[in-house]
Amino acid sequence: MTNFADALNRKADEIERPKPLPVGTYLCSIPNQPEMKKIGQKETPAAEYTVRVVSASDDVDQEALNQAGGAQGKNLRLTFYLTEESAYRYRDFLVDTLGIEPNGRTLGEMIPDSVNRMFYATIKHKPSQDGTQIYTEISGTAKA
Questions:
Q1: Is residue 2 pLDDT above 70, yes or no?
Q2: Is the dihedral of CA 64, 78, 74, 25 positive or negative?
Q3: Angle 36-39-44 (CA atoms, 0-180°, nearest 5)?
Q4: Which residue in 19, 46, 85, 119 is deepest, having the highest Cβ count within 10 Å?
Q5: Which of 8, 141, 11, 10 is nearest to 76 (CA)?
Q6: Strands, DSSP E only, in 40-95?
Q7: What average pLDDT score do residues 136-142 get?
Q8: Sign of the CA dihedral 54, 50, 85, 137?
Q9: What is the pLDDT of residues 60-79, one digit of tens each?
Q10: So what's the pLDDT on residue 54?
Q11: What is the predicted pLDDT for the residue at 24?
């Protein structure tokens, strides 16, 4: 792991933007509970996971994956908005994708059970608003 001194001692003209992971399906794990935060101008409440990529599936272009530095150990963000209209998506992720039994519990009570669970994430590319960059985004999830 890089420390602050190592990062700050790098020559600025030698630093390159990381390449996004290629589109496709990846096995991911959840190392920690989500960060509860407010997102956007409307400050919408959300649960944001940092998920760790474990491996790439056969539908991922291996040459593009090698150019991106491989998949293992890369982190992605997975966000669930916690509004009346969208809370069902988070419930579906916890119950259907991660296999957590609700047993009459609230979503908040189920969150600790999400840690160390595995799931498949479908990755797509999303351009930045100004069109100058490509971001990796999780567009779907499935039970591992």
A1: no
A2: negative
A3: 85
A4: 119
A5: 141
A6: 44-56, 75-81
A7: 95
A8: negative
A9: 999 999 999 999 889 999 99
A10: 96
A11: 97
Beta bridge partners of 141: 121
How much of the chain, in percent, has pLDDT values that exceed 70?
98
**Distance spanning both ends of the chain, measured CA to CA:** 28
What six digits make up the tokens of 42?
């409307």
Contact in structure between 56 and 26 (CB atoms under 8 Å)? yes
In 3D, which of 2, 21, 129 has the Cα closest to residue 77? 21
At a CB cut-off of 8 Å and minimum separation 6, what does 77 contact?
Answer: 48, 49, 50, 51, 138
Structure-block tokens of residue 46: 């959300």
* Two tokens, residue 21: 């992971």
Contacts of 143 (CB under 8 A, 6+ apart): 96, 97, 98, 99, 119, 120
Confirm if 35 and 80 have CB atoms less than 8 A apart: no
Write the single-letter amino acid at 75. N
> What is the pTM assigned to this prediction?
0.88
